[in-house]
Amino acid sequence: MADGTALTDRIAERRAGVGDPRALVGELRRALILVPYDGGGLWTAAFGGVRWICGFTDEQALARFAQSRDTGDGRETGRSWEFAEMRGARLLDEVVPAMGEPAGLALNIADPAGAMLFPPVTGIVPDAAAVDESERD
After folding, report:
1. What HEC string does 2-49 produce?
2. φ, ψ dihedrals at 83, nearest 5°
3. H-run or E-run covering 67
4. Which of 35, 84, 87, 101 sits at a 20 to 30 Å CA gap from 62?
5. Do residues 104 and 133 lie in contact, with contact meaning Cβ atoms separated by under 8 Å?
6. Within 10 A of 25 (CB to CB), how many other CB atoms are there?
7. Which three-class secondary structure state does DSSP give residue 69?
8. How many CB atoms are closer than 10 A to CB 118?
9. Residue 129 carries which DSSP code?
10. Dihedral through CA 31, CA 23, CA 96, CA 37, nearest 10?
11. What is the pLDDT of residues 63-84, one digit of tens each?
12. Has this prediction a pTM greater than 0.90?
């Protein structure tokens, strides 16, 4: 699997208030993203009127998420975590529009200092899936 370092570097730049947002989205589109399965589909969470696909830049970030989902008392559940691996471009261009509701990508959500949301807006997802598209008319 491709190393997610370039994407995590772009995220760190944006969180520090520097870097080019277009370079961040470009890096996301090129990156391989891990998305765990939940109940036969991709793991998602609803928040703020958006369905967020939970994705991870590497197996370590996914493992931190899996650990955070364990019992909470330090015991591991022994749960096996299956996941899909796909390019960010496929998530944004195919999966998000197919969801049929406002959807975005929540990346590395178990890493508070390294998490990043990619909302369903123009420039990130296709115009037809962007929630801000109707505001432009």
Report:
1. CCCHHHHHHHHHHHCCCCCHHHHHHHHHHCEEEEEEECCEECEEEECC
2. -150, 155
3. helix 59-68
4. 101
5. no
6. 17
7. coil
8. 21
9. G
10. 30
11. 999 888 775 555 555 667 899 9
12. no
Looking at residue 77, what is its pLDDT? 59
Which among 13, 34, 32 is positioned nearest to 116, based on CA atoms?
13
Rounding to the nearest 10 degrees, give the CA dihedral for residues 127, 92, 114, 31.
-130
Query: Residue 70 is encoded by which pair of tokens?
Result: 């364990």
Q: Which two tokens stand for residue 130?
A: 């962007």
The angle, 0 to 180 degrees and rounded to 10, between the axes of the packed helices 21-30 and 5-15 is 160
Contacts (Cβ under 8 Å, ≥6 apart) of 11: 24, 107, 108, 114, 116
136: three-class secondary structure by DSSP? helix
CB-count burial class (<10 Å; 0-12, 13-18, 19+) for 69: middle
